[in-house]
Amino acid sequence: MMSQGRTLTFNIFRYDPQQSGDKPKMVKYQIEETPGMSVFIALNQLREQQDSSLQFDFVCRAGICGSCAMVINGFPTLACRTLTSKYPKGEITLMPLPGFELIGDLSVNTGKFMRELAERLKLWLHPNLDDVDVHRLEAPMAPEEAAKLYELERCVECGVCVSACATKQMRETFVGAVGMMKLARFELDSRDQRGVEDFYHVIGNQDGVFGCMTLLGCQDNCPKDLPHMQQIAYLRRKMAVALV
Amino acid sequence: MTIKTLLPASSIPGLAGHPWSARADKIQSATGLLLGCFLLAHLHFESSILLGKEAFYQVVQILEGGMFSESGHGFPVLTQIFSVFILLVVILHAAVALRRFPAQLGQWRALRRHMNGINHKDTHAWFWQLVTGFILFFLAPVHIFTMITNPEIGPNLSAERVYLDNAWLLYALLLPAVVIHAMIGLYRVAIKWGLTANRSGLRKVAKFMIIYLLTIGMLSLVSYLFIGADLTIPVEPYIPH
């Protein structure tokens, strides 16, 4: 196995905004590569053996929680799903995701961002309130519809699409792919009473689908391979014919 | 490195859909598509000089409506009218495309910082579309105004413009700018509205078209220079055999 016995060099962005006088800098670490090592495993080893002050986020280590997203050699992605054997030179540069509030080092506050986005776009189910009868069984959903919803529901809110989007970096109020993906999910849901007009008033503007410049950083970097390109094109076509 | 996040919804009272957002996006794509298709035709028509003076003369006569005149010569006024139309389309396209420009220094710096930190090909392609689009603000109108004021097109008359009037300098700069801008733009319009899902195939077509159009454009420009160098003053229009 080619990944055995190599010495990996990590260049890691270090900065603690909580510490007065601390300045952003790149720090070099070296570590012995082990078989099947992911960037996430390497970071844990670094923290255990070399520098206990190193900050980064993780929960599930299996690409489900979306916490460990960072920029690895220029590509925003999940650290737990990136094998170190992918880099033949053994040099790995880690930067925090741009576009989010920095907590420290590689840790960014995606949670705050996602919550504000959800509040702004009202990313929850809006059931038909005139039709509330707790004694009645809920109508079953067609399997095809459930499958469609589940496809979009796979988003783990890692923030990669936001960091990969130059439009979002230039225009702070732009909702980004995650916002449009989640709205598309409710647009498809037959239980949601919101119609095309309601969605139009949320994303039918320069901050929504008509602000997207189709740079496709979201599509090319999404660690869950969500169909951002098709989804945004679908919303754009839908919004383009609404209210004209 | 701290970067502000979104303001909470309550602090953005004006957040709402706007019909002009949809219209601007549609106008930008439609005018872009029109101009891109026009460019494809235009570059092929003018490159017919590569097949000889006679071929180019015939193309010009057809496009200027030579079949409707008794003498068989076309009407240059058609070129003038069409040039005015294209100018209007260019103005409309530029007006709506301006929305995309990083008009503030902060936005420009955010773009450059993003491009330095994140490795993404399509973002780089868009950046070149942005740069060439900016260049076209200055070069495209010069070319179109020339065609409105001096619409005479022909093997000798065009060569006179290119060589004796030094328009080659304009064309040598305009050609790469407009070809790169238009081909990346057509690629983007197709995926933006979901006309095709075969993105990698479309990218290959766009790359091929850029090389192909630059080649025929540059070769025809060189042949106009050669024809221009052989002209005798005063320049006589080409007479077909």
UniProtKB/TrEMBL annotation, chain B:
It comes from the Bacteria. Keywords: Heme, Iron, Membrane, Metal-binding, Transmembrane, Transmembrane helix. One of its GO terms (cellular component) is membrane. Its cofactor is heme. Pfam families: Sdh_cyt (PF01127). Heme b binds at residues 42, 93, 143, 181. It is found in: Membrane. One of its GO terms (molecular function) is metal ion binding. GO terms for biological process: tricarboxylic acid cycle. InterPro entries: Fum_red_B_TM, SQR/QFR_C/D, SuccDH_FuR_B_TM-su. The chain crosses the membrane at residues 77-98, 125-148, 168-187, 208-227. Membrane-anchoring subunit of succinate dehydrogenase (SDH). This is Fumarate reductase cytochrome b subunit.
